Amino acid sequence: MAKVLVVTSGKGGVGKTTSTAALGAALAQRGEKVVVVDFDVGLRNLDLILGAERRVVFDLINVVQGVAKLSQALIRDKRLENLWLLPASQTRDKDALTDEGVRSIIADLRTKFDWILCDSPAGIERGATLAMRYADEAVIVTNPEVSSVRDSDRIIGMLDSKTVKAESGERVEKHVLITRYDSGRAARGEMLSIEDILEILATPLLGIIPESQDVLRASNVGSPVTLNNAASAPARAYIDAARRLMGETVEMMVPTERKGLMDRLLGRRAA
Amino acid sequence: MNAIAQPTRQLVRMRGRSYVAFVFAPVVPIVGWLEEIDATLARSPGFFAGKPVVLDLSAVDLSETAIMHLVASLEQRNVRVLGIEGVDPVRLTASMPPLLTGGRSCVLMQNELKKPETKPKPTSLLLENPVRSGQSIVFTEGDVTVLGSVGSGAEIVAGGSIHIYGTLRGRAMAGVNGNSAARIYCQKIEAELLAIDGYYQTAEEIDVALRNRPAQAWLEGDVMRIAPLS
User: How does residue B180 score in pLDDT terms, banded at 50, 70 and 90?
Assistant: First the structure.
């Protein structure tokens, strides 16, 4: 049974696109057939993170408007044969998305893939609501800070009221993914603790992704962090999260970076 | 002067008025049909009281005496027959109700059958899930109880009191219809704003010592009091 999973947050810049790419690649590495769909029409990024930006011909809007067939717009990853991308249009805006168009594309993708990961744009407007509209599950990406947590709370409320599942009396299964977590700063009380976040959001935890230079490095070379350096702390955390999505029980831990002497000496650099 | 008092001519004014009558259409055997009437009367005595009743005899072929007997039987049950229709006029005597024609059928408002649906409106609202940021719960009919938390940026508006078994991080407005006896209770107070009957306090004015503790708020005159719940 295909699963439609929306990666959302409300707030921008918390790591939705990075997480979509990393989770998508991790699921594909485990043999699942995955498509990642960029809903950020007008501000697309997922193609860059996946290193597919030079191969985009048709996009989501072309398919919605019937200009191109779905098979023409899907881009297969060069490293993982199970991973596909449906890019967003950069020249249009979110008004080009229609409920009916999204419904038919999602229904089509359901017949072809095991996982459909929808990378939601920030905000609570049309793009974000259509990205979550047909979701079965949701990953709410949250940074350990109050503004991000409050926006996530708002998004959870929308997942419980504005999705097709919610409207038909069912529930969208929700998971919180905490990204950019710095255990040192959390210990010093400069960040919200995991317990605080989960207490506020009252939603199960999918994983904790540590703040890491590896994430930026992977983005810059156009590779999901789980592919670029699978041994890195964030990659391990994403792989664990993907396994939990697949129903495995994986012990929750905060992956720490193996720090060298220089890191330890300079570890207190103000961020 | 021969003043002859001319009697002033009184104009007789005729007015038309229509009434809705119950139409009884007896079927044979008449005895069985009368039992049905008895059963109806047993269920709700006074069902036909004060209502005009017309006998429609088109479905049966009754003799003059039979009609007289039927009318009498109904009279025994306190059902007075206003008129009879669907019968040959020769079978009716002067002592019987008059023949009626030209009746039109209409929908009867069976007030007695329609059980008065005075299901009392619920005076409290129970929310089993957390109230999320951006959600606004408005219930002016009474109390609101939240089993979870009320997120920052969420608001609860209640005509009565507000009970929150989780953490109150958003706004709570109780007694909005002018109920100054309404109170706000929560398991943990981190509220952005508390209001009762229009009197409010913002987070800044709430004593820091109360934060993160079970608390209640109420009105004393026009002063809002907040105290820990022990």
Answer: very high
Q: Does B97 touch chain A (CB under 8 A)?
A: no
Report the mean per-residue pLDDT for chain A: 91
Four-way CATH pick for B125-228: 1.10.10.10, 3.30.460.10, 2.160.20.70, 2.60.120.200: 2.160.20.70
Q: Give me the pLDDT at residue B68, please.
A: 84
Cross-chain Cβ contact B130/A151 below 8 Å: no
Q: Using a CB-CB distance cutoff of 8 angstroms, which residues of chain A are in contact with residue B128?
A: none
Predicted pLDDT at B4: 59
Paired strand residues for A187 = none
Please name which of A111, A32, A121, A11 lies closest in space to residue A71, comparing C-alpha atoms: A111
Task: Supply the pTM of this predicted model.
Answer: 0.70
Interface of A with B (CB under 8 A): 124, 146, 150-151, 153-154, 156-158, 160, 199-200, 202
Q: How far apart are CA B216 and CA B184, in angstroms?
A: 5
ipTM of the complex: 0.75
Closest CA of chain A from B132, distance in Å: 5
| Cβ–Cβ under 8 Å, residues B82 and B53 | yes
What's the pLDDT at B109?
Answer: 58
